[in-house]
Amino acid sequence: MRLLLIEDEIALSDALVFMLKKKGYMVDAAYDGISGQEMAETDSYDLLIVDRMLPYKEGVSIIKDLRMKGIKTPVLILTAKDSIKDRVEGLDAGADDYLLKPFSTEELLARIRALSRRQSDIIEGESIRVGKAVLRPLHKEVKAGKETIRLTLKETQLLELLLRNRNQVITREQIINRVWGFDSEVEINIVEIYIHNLRKKLPPEHCGFTIETVRGIGYCIKEGEHV
Which residues carry this modification: 4-aspartylphosphate (predicted)? Predict the structure, then answer.
């Protein structure tokens, strides 16, 4: 699961990024409203965590703009403003949840889990079921019948991205951004290598889905052994 944290308090941001990565999340950080919105507009994230008071552009304005542009990524607002009016304003702008500062890391993690469950009806707790297989991202493994297939971290992140967006084409550029990060200097052909490895580990007859190549664009998960 890939998160974008837009938070201008650098010490807090760094601490949250460190904690979330230890919990297995992929996290990018922005420190002001304009750069944060630009990153969010790539639509490359599963969840946005947005501080309300930001330099250059306020959090509620960011959310309004994203929703007007059709970006439906779930948003969790972080704020010290606790009046009913402020909460209503944020939720009416398109936020999905509201967390008051200061907050415990346990509550933040619980809100993230709740929003991730809401995002897709194919998510079962921390697992994703497609076809005959169940991906357990935190364990870096796929269960297919009685077989347990071990994956590397990058294989897990790539497969999670494809499964969460089954029947949709994910471009190679989106894969690079979401799995390796915006600042990565890896070559685009690294995606082909990882797709090849996943196909070897996950034969359609065992898993009930195929990883299809959409020529010149990217890849797509399709259910069925012989799609």
Answer: 51
